[in-house]
């Protein structure tokens, strides 16, 4: 009997629905080929709905989403809505309420994809960032004192719990072992300045690593130096583990060296619950409805979604089809792909 998955679809804002539509074309074909079934349900969590109804993601929505096997997300962010509202009310609400404590972001340059880093190719640019996704500066701890006066104080506190750090580190160690490439895990932090948070991270990293993962090489890099090395020596990295804020920042740089936001995918993972997969770029409002945005990041997110569901063969097939598709594209940038959004999707499907 073939498996049947329940997948929640959140097209979201801007170009989100367009790129998700291409991913769903691909899903239809791989499901048939690899003999699994799926049911889709659309969720309208958009800035436009918020403007009309005041609704974001409710606790009832979260309960409903918990009954799904996976979530496929396009993009969030609407220029008509004040910055922060959709980000907090939709994306961060989903990540936090579903306890998706890992943000997994592979940085992999495919053959024939242009990278701004000269003299580096697919052999050098191939690593994975494990970003902690439930703590740090993202918890929203802090506040104002004497707001609006000349004595105003604003604090924004980074929260790092032993439990939260440990579960993230363990995931990263397991991932490094399973990836089985260079078997090196780099902790990316700022131990020289942020001496409380990164001391906790560093102690937990060594305790867990030295006791339970003797087969993994432990490595450390400061976050600023990591930015330098992404450009200078990206081949030094295998798997990186870092906190929420640093992970957010370095993965935008990572996306650039792998060919841009058009191709960078990621997963918000709750290994014990429901995970959510998305292109790591934004909603690109200026490209909305123009058939110019690159859907490959969304198709890569679908690949990750299927991998998480255990459909490894289907996922591997999608990756091969992406590799064949990029070889025919002069650029991964919106409007410069030599074809439109839908044609990129069709090409991936043809290559399956
Ligand atoms: C990302 C985004 C989000 C983040 C924003 C939209 C809240 O930049 O997924 O990297 O900061 O995590
Ligand atoms: Mn980001």
UniProtKB/TrEMBL annotation:
It holds the Pfam family Iso_dh. GO terms for molecular function: 3-isopropylmalate dehydrogenase activity; magnesium ion binding; NAD binding. Keywords: Manganese, Metal-binding, NAD, Oxidoreductase. Its EC number is 1.1.1.85. Its cofactor is Mg(2+); Mn(2+). The keyword Oxidoreductase applies. InterPro entries: ICDH/IPMDH, IsoCit/isopropylmalate_DH_CS, IsoPropMal-DH-like_dom. The keyword Membrane does not apply. Residues 6-348 form the Isopropylmalate dehydrogenase-like domain. It is an enzyme of class 1 (oxidoreductase). This is 3-isopropylmalate dehydrogenase.
């Amino acid at each position: 009997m073939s498996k049947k998955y329940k997948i929640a679809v959140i097209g979201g804002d801007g170009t989100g629905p367009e790129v998700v539509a291409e991913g769903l074309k691909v899903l239809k074909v791989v499901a048939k080929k690899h003999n699994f079934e799926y049911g889709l349900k659309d969720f309208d969590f958009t800035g436009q709905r918020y403007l009309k109804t005041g609704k974001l993601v409710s606790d009832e929505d979260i309960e409903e989403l918990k009954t799904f096997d996976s979530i496929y997300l396009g993009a969030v962010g609407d220029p008509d809505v004040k910055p922060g509202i959709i980000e907090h009310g939709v994306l961060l609400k989903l990540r936090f309420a579903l306890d998706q404590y890992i943000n997994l972001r592979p940085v992999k340059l495919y053959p024939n994809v242009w990278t701004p880093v000269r003299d580096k190719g697919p052999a050098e640019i191939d690593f994975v960032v494990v970003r902690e996704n439930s703590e740090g500066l993202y918890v929203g701890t802090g506040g104002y004192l004497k707001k609006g006066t000349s004595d105003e104080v604003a604090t924004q506190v980074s929260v790092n719990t032993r439990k939260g750090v440990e579960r993230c580190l363990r995931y990263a160690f397991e991932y490094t072992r399973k990836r089985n490439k260079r078997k090196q895990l780099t902790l990316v932090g700022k131990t020289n300045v942020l001496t409380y948070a990164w001391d906790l991270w560093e102690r937990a990293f060594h305790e867990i690593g030295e006791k339970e993962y003797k087969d993994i090489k432990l490595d450390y890099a400061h976050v600023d130096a990591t930015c330098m090395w992404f450009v200078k020596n990206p081949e030094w990295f295998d798997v990186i583990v870092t906190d929420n804020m640093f992970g957010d920042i370095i993965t935008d740089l990572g996306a650039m060296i792998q060919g841009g936001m058009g191709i960078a995918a990621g997963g918000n993972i709750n290994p014990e619950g429901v995970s959510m997969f998305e292109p790591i770029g934004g909603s690109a409002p200026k490209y909305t409805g123009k058939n110019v945005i690159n859907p490959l990041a969304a198709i890569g997110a679908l690949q990750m979604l299927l991998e998480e569901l255990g459909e490894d063969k289907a996922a591997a097939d999608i990756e091969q089809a992406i590799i064949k598709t990029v070889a025919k594209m002069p650029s991964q940038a919106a409007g410069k792909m030599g074809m439109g959004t839908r044609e990129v999707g069709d090409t991936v499907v043809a290559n399956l």
